[in-house]
């Protein structure tokens, strides 16, 4: 089974139907004990220090791990990805193009996925068969999500982990199916452990995953992980086909479409505040202006760069934000 690297979530149903093994390069990078070596590889090869650490990390993972083929997202992902793909092509990496069309019309999404299927020589029925299988694990992830924000039995980090992993099913669909079913059985049996402050995490998954344990020291918990939840396709079992599945996927499209789902989740999960994580040197940081204007909820913007743990200044800002939310809740009682 041939490995194909991913720089972001794409229709992995097509890759699996074609007999390939999709590998999310982001997950390899951020979970590595020696993750900085990947950034060093990129900078030694000429990548600027003032460039997103994720882009450099993905490049380093490709080079260090001998990834020979990747899916390159031409629309709907970071603009730096286009340049990354060009450099990797120079290094002999084979690039398979895919786009999330800016038009966000269902007919255009369908055309792109059909082109993707043609590249890999698979038929619609084969792809749908894979999608139905993957939806079993996605439905379990949705139950774990509900056990987070409804039953208060799952931590914010666990919620993050078991949804973000669905970007590539940890490279082994069969093993992942078994593992996530066991996780569900375990967390169901826990006692409820509610926290006073209910937080939403929005933006790209963090370099600083210790943020989840940190906030729980202050009687708070993340009960919503925006992009991670999108990676898990929570609506997949309720829609008719793969084209609709990737049409309703909010992450790659414009912020107006994303805001509709954010507003819905703020209400449904009874959030008290939001932490908006952005990566240094990323254009998405500008979106914070729109989010604070459009969302009627306290928002704290924090920025990550190379380090995979929270620095002292960011911890102080989060603690002050939680104090403020606690005061607001106290005043509303």
TrEMBL record:
The keyword Lyase does not apply. Pfam families: HGD-D. Gene3D superfamilies: 3.40.50.11900. The keyword Translocase does not apply. One of its GO terms (molecular function) is hydro-lyase activity. Keywords: Iron, Iron-sulfur, Metal-binding. Its cofactor is [4Fe-4S] cluster. It comes from the Bacteria. Belongs to the FldB/FldC dehydratase alpha/beta subunit family. This is 2-hydroxyglutaryl-CoA dehydratase, D-component. It comes from Alkalithermobacter paradoxus.
